[in-house]
Design a protein that fits this description.
Elements (H helix, E strand, L loop, with lengths): L1 E5 L6 E5 L6 E3 L2 H7 L4 E7 L3 E5 L3 E6 L5 E6 L6 E6 L6 E5 L13 E3 L21
Parallel strand pairs: 3-10
Antiparallel strand pairs: 1-2, 2-5, 3-4, 4-9, 6-7, 7-8, 8-9
């Protein structure tokens, strides 16, 4: 599925081709803290399927509890999170933050991860499982 999007202020713009079956939400405490919300909504995109159209995101290097580094990229003007990527891994892929996508209503999550860290008031909780369709 072809999508496009931008940060809140429009400085960063992108295009991507994503697999809507791979959309996920992550409940880990790092995602909660970095996003300022109870979970992170994203999809992994191979580098060849992602293109920045305008702007140059700022990078924050996050070190996880296991010592692995990842880059968290965001708009330097409005601080909208755009994507993250592992440091030094090939082939390169990006975890695109779907709140910036113009097609966000067409990208419901299919998978939840780190569910044991989910906030108690979040409706769907499980352990790394597919979401139940209603």
């Amino acid at each position: 599925m072809k999508i496009d999007g931008n940060c809140h202020c429009g400085f960063i713009q992108y295009k991507a081709e994503v697999n809507p079956e791979e959309v996920y939400i992550c409940h880990c405490t790092d995602c909660q803290s970095i996003s300022g919300s109870p979970f992170r909504w994203a999809v992994s995109v191979p580098a060849e399927n992602f293109k920045l159209i305008s702007g140059n995101p700022k990078t924050y290097e996050k070190i996880s509890a296991n010592g692995r580094a990842s880059h968290q990229l965001f708009c330097p003007e409005c601080a909208s999170p755009i994507y993250s990527t592992a440091v030094g891994t090939e082939p390169k892929s990006y975890n695109l933050r779907l709140g910036t996508s113009n097609q966000r209503s067409d990208l419901p999550p299919k998978l939840e991860v780190w569910c044991r860290s989910a906030q108690e008031w979040v409706a769907s909780k499980g352990t790394n499982e597919k979401l139940n369709k209603q």
